[in-house]
């Protein structure tokens, strides 16, 4: 018998036994709606892993762009006679 740990029979308590069932808080977290148990973590994101990776790469690119642009800006406005903290430099 093969055990699939991502798809289990364990899930959060049924909505009828939990007082917060009317708020819709648990929708999308149970095996019946996602195909994965609540303890499987981010396994439910397997089908969108390409988009998730693309979003992280784009975010890293934006951070690098900002750091590079701010470093060039600080370098262009650098005055050697003043300490860096008085010039408001945060990257140099």
From TrEMBL:
GO biological process: photosynthetic electron transport chain
GO molecular function list: chlorophyll binding; oxidoreductase activity
InterPro entries xref list: PS_antenna-like, PS_II_antenna-like_sf
Bilayer-crossing regions: none
Subcellular location: Membrane
Keywords on record: Chlorophyll, Chloroplast, Chromophore, Membrane, Oxidoreductase, Photosynthesis, Plastid, Transmembrane, Transmembrane helix
One Pfam match: PSII
A GO-annotated cellular component: photosystem
Membrane topology: Multi-pass membrane protein
Enzyme class, UniProt record, top EC level: oxidoreductase
Main location: membrane
EC number of the protein: 1.10.3.9
The protein's name: Photosystem II cp43 subunit
Annotated source species: Karenia mikimotoi
Name of encoding gene: psbC
């Amino acid at each position: 018998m093969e055990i699939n740990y991502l798809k289990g029979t364990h899930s959060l308590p049924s909505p009828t036994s939990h007082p917060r069932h009317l708020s819709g808080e648990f929708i999308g977290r149970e095996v019946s709606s996602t195909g994965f148990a609540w303890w499987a973590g981010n396994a439910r994101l397997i089908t969108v892993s390409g988009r998730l990776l693309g979003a992280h790469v784009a975010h890293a690119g934006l951070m690098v762009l900002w750091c590079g642009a701010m470093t060039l800006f600080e370098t262009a406005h650098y005055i050697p006679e003043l300490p860096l903290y008085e010039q408001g430099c945060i990257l140099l």
